[in-house]
Batch of 4 targets.
Target 1
Amino acid sequence: MGTPKAMLPFRGGTFLTHLCQRLAVHCDLLVVVTGAHADRILCPPGARAVVNEKWERGQLSSLQCALRAVPAGVSGVLFTLVDHPDPAEETLAKLVQSQATVAVPVHDGRKGHPVRFQAALIPELLALPAGASAKDVFRAYAALTEYIVVSDPGIVDDVDDAVALLRFRARTEFA
């Protein structure tokens, strides 16, 4: 991509600033985890920056860094990836309102991000070994998972390469 995905330009800011603005409406605390390019990523004001020194271990290690920064007493966590930068406001509202142990948005039969889970799952997620996946914990709560059907293609955006970025821009440029 030529730059960290968090810093890709989008709607007058970056993927990260746009996503943080959306999430700030629904979350009391934003935790931004950086890794390989921590020195190049500008954390938006009001968000707590956490550097994952072991970023090469993958997504779970970043989630665990974020969860270690979550203060005691929160009821739930809304987790997303910066390469899913444009979830709709109403999707976020539905996820935050869910009382399920795990809440997952679904668009056109595809599960997406953000995912909301109750804070009671934090110890289990922190206990996962390197090489595991958060899905290992979430699968154990399948019967307590709410799949929320949304008309929001933003939950399945996955801007991992130049082609996906072009498709994303074509869908969102004038929206």
Target 2
Amino acid sequence: MSTILLVEDDADIREIERDYLKREGYVVREAGDGQEALDQFADSAIDLVVLDLNLPVLDGVSVCRAIRRSSGIPIIMVTAKTSEIDELLGLEVGADDYVKKPFSPKVLVARVRALLKRPELKGAEKKITHGDLVIDLDSRSAVKHGQNLNLTATQFNMLYLMVSSPGKVFTREDLIERGYGKDLPPDIFDRTIDSHIKNIRKVLEDKPDKPKYLLTVRGHGYKFMTA
């Protein structure tokens, strides 16, 4: 069963969230501040992180960025205000999903389940090569010029979908389903998808502001084009 790192400085809230996750069969590791979170992450095999934004010692943004330097595992960022979600999307800290407090623990469990459940890939090619870009489904890796692209789990799913069908336009709804699976979070919104696309371009494109691979089709969505 998957191991969840639950990072929340409020012990009462953390206890409730922990109990719901354990009830679903997840193994839960806990941290009450940002530094403890990084220590736990370094010492344990973690499959997903639930990360509060406002933490003592190190804030959630710093923790998320530190994890992203070495791992693409799913991260759910928990914030107190919708405006903070907008700010985080602008900062592009690398979270896969965002949840606003207060929320039902059942909602958290659903978000965790959605991110840990890989989208259906029946009949998909195991390895796709376009020029110097290689996408490997088995290793969940994307490599360009021999260098591994630092993608989150959600971003890998989205890129794999588009690379599998060059020239096809995918709507944001298509990308949400591939990125998060069919157990969809109820309030994933367009800016979240746009933020993921922007982050993919940062590592995929030679000039992210002038993309040649991942193109916007205004009013419709995005498509992958071979260079």
Target 3
Amino acid sequence: MTNKPLINPELYKKINETMPITAIDIILVKDGKFLLGKRNNKPAQNKWWLPGGRILKGELLKNAVKRKVKEETGYTIKNSRLLTVTELFFPDSVWKTSTHNIILLYKAEAKQQTATPDKQHAQLTWFLEIDKRWPKYIRWALELAGFKYHEIVSKHLS
């Protein structure tokens, strides 16, 4: 792991306003389930979202994946692999400006531990299936990782 360089908030705001931020998102899996966190802050505030965040200068991608999972969930991981590279645009951010993120989407297995949400998440929950009400990006990422949508089964009474 690398030491975290501190970025002055005003400088980071300027970077965010003028260029894309390179980040990772991780689909964390265990026992056929995937982990999402309910976000406390912008962007995607109050939405179910994947653990992830920016990559630090000098940090190997595999170490960024391990660091973000540990920081945001308390889990350690094994068998991480890159699924795809994509980009996301958010109309808002903590600075009330739009955000452009280049995302490296990973899938990793969680080792058996207890989830511990960080300050960015109100809660962490394991799910079996995709909910159609979740943001489009989250649904797309989970489908790419092989997860299916929740099927509503109606029972007919005779």
Target 4
Amino acid sequence: MTDPTETPAQAKRRRLINLGEAIALAALIISALGLWNSWSKRDEKPAVVVEQTRSIPLALRGRVEDDGKVLAISPVEAGHALESLTLTAPGKPPVELGSEPRLSASSVEGLISADRNEGDGSLQITLDARYIETGIERRGNGRYRLEYRWVGGGLFEGRSLRLTRLTRN
């Protein structure tokens, strides 16, 4: 109830105090709710987010060096590190190439049949690899086509084999 002796300024002041008390009470309630919320989630274990990396299949490429006398074989993905590479051709013994594979034309000559010594040709091969990806040792293989051409045969030189390309089948 209002006091009859109260002036309008005093009434306004009393109203402002009540409004301030209401705001303080609302802030206290909101803080209490926030504290209760964080307290109730305290027992939950934190979620560990680990990004799973998917394995990328091994793909190899060949780079012709020394005018086709050598074919340097390397993984397409930078995250793959070769440990060993073995080349096999149908009906022929396997050829070990090591961890930094460089295939020479002279080693391929033994894989090509004797009747095939003119012009361009290709050979179906299988490359078996051991490699490291994200710290894990993996194995992979693939069928490739090794393309070559015979050159030379002049007056003083014999025919020689040049490797031209390595493609995936």
